[in-house]
Structures are given as C-alpha cells and as structure tokens.
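Comment thread on ticket #2218

A.B. wrote:
> Attaching the input chain for the structure job we discussed in standup.
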Amino acid sequence: MRLGLNLRGRYNILESVKLVSIAEERGFEYLLAPEYYFFRDTVSQTAAYALATKKIRIICVFNPYTRNPALTAMSIASLNEIAEGRVIPCLGATPASWLSKMGIEQRAPLAAMRESCFLIRKLLDGETISTRGKIFKMSDVALGFQVKPVEKILFSVIGPRMLELAGEIGDGVVLTAFTPVTYIQEAIGYVRKGASKAGRSIDNLEFAAAIAYLHDKRHLNVLKSYAAYVMSASNIILNYLNLDYEKKKRLQECFARGRLDEAATLISDDDLGRIALFGNMTECRRRLEEYFRIGVTLPIIVPVAEPKEAIYEASRLI
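C.D. wrote:
> Ran it. Output below, let me know if you need it in another format.
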C-alpha cells in the first residue's frame, strides 16, 4: 500500500526534515508540501525535503493568485532539479477568505486554473510563450535552463466544476482533509466525468486524499481545533456532514466571526469519526479500506499531534 505524509507546514523546517527522513525509512512513498496561509511556504518545504530524502516523491502545491505561472514553472523546474525528478506539482485555487487577507481578489478561478495549468505545462516542455489570456499575459517567455520532466500535474480543488476541470486537463486530485467519504466519492466521480468529457483515460488518474490522523485519543481536542480551521475555509465540508440545522448554523456563525476555538467545541467525537482517522490499528485499517473502495488511490496521512509518534504508528498501516 502506498502512503503519503503531510506535515502541513506547521513545524520548524529543520525538525520537519528529521520527520520526513523517518517517514522515508518507515516506508512512506509520498510527501505533500502544502501552502496553508500563513505557515511555511511550499518552495522552502519542498527544497528541504528533497535534500533530506532519496526516494520519496514530493507533491508541492502552488496557486495562480500569489504566483504567476512563469514563476511557478521556474520554481517547479528548480525544485525538480534539486529532487532529481521526484517533484509532483499540484495547483490549488486557494480559498477566497485567505486571499482576501492579502488584498487579492479570487477572480475567475476556473479560468485562472485552466490558464495557469496550460502555461506551466508549456513552459516545462521548453516552449516559448506569448499569450493574452483572460487572466494571464506573457510576451516571449521561456525557461532559460534544461528541465527535468515532471511525472504529472495534480489539482487540489473542492467544487464540482473545479473537479471536472482537474479530470479534463490535470492528472488527478489531492482532496482536502476532513471531507467525509460521501464527498470524496462524489468528488472522484466529477474528476472522472471531466476526463470522460475530454476523451481522456481515467486509468492513470491519481486520487489522493489527505486524511487527518490521530494516534492517541488524548489529543482529540487538538484534532477538533484543526478540523475547525480546515472547515472554516469552505462550506462544502459542512454540507456533507449531515449536521443538524442548529449546529451547522452555529458553526457557520463561528467561522464568519473567526471564532475557531468556539467552533472546535461544537464538533463531537462522532463528527470526527466521519472525517478523520483515529482509534486502534484494526479500526484505522478498516477506515482506510473504505477509502480504497470508493476510489482513493493514495491516502495522505496528516498527523495532528506528536508527529514523530504518529509517523511510527501510521507506518504500521503500510
């Protein structure tokens, strides 16, 4: 079984390097280096992880709003040089709520993702680009060095139209943590639908799912706090949790007012059981089998507390 690891950019990079070295020794095959605002950025994480490992593949996440596609292509090519071909780029639209804090408008996200993916692929293929798109304009742009080919370009997206786009022009998806299997199953269906519409095979598409993991129930409150943080970025998770009306309304009010600590207290252990991985090893294996049955090809473990201990425990699932 292939297993990935996502440290969320939450830990000191020098400490994270030690953790990913342990993960590689314990059989993890993939790392996810996300760009959660406002934590450690994907480029710094990816470069450090690449230098500290030899085999593990690194999925690095970029978005078209804080980085121009030309700069993204430069970063991907440079990082893949450091990693000797082990980098897998991933494009994410980034929640509008995060972008607004930086004074950035999430304008035409579908067009931004489509154009960004197209331009990055062309630049990584060594082409010279001159274009005037809806979002991006370039004039005689080309990378000035030889590029190692990338294995694939994934999308980290949530909504139905974005998921279809991932199937149409991407090579698969990385689905966010704290999403119920009902959502994941539908999301995979949208990606497949997009691929079919474009006349593409679905056989080689990657369906990765980030799964929050807790190895010790003493830290359930930490898990609830992280769940509140992730859920605050999108209503989609709430819509698939089948919460009663009053709880859903209270959570939405907390998110709107930035009261994440209060939101965490509203999340029950039963709620967590539908969107995270915790419990004994038998229960965790049973839950992972459920993810595989609905089409997930790569579970990405997201340790929520005591990451070193969590990595050792999660490696027993391999």
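A.B. wrote:
> Thanks. Noting for the ticket: The first strand starts at residue 4 and ends at 6.
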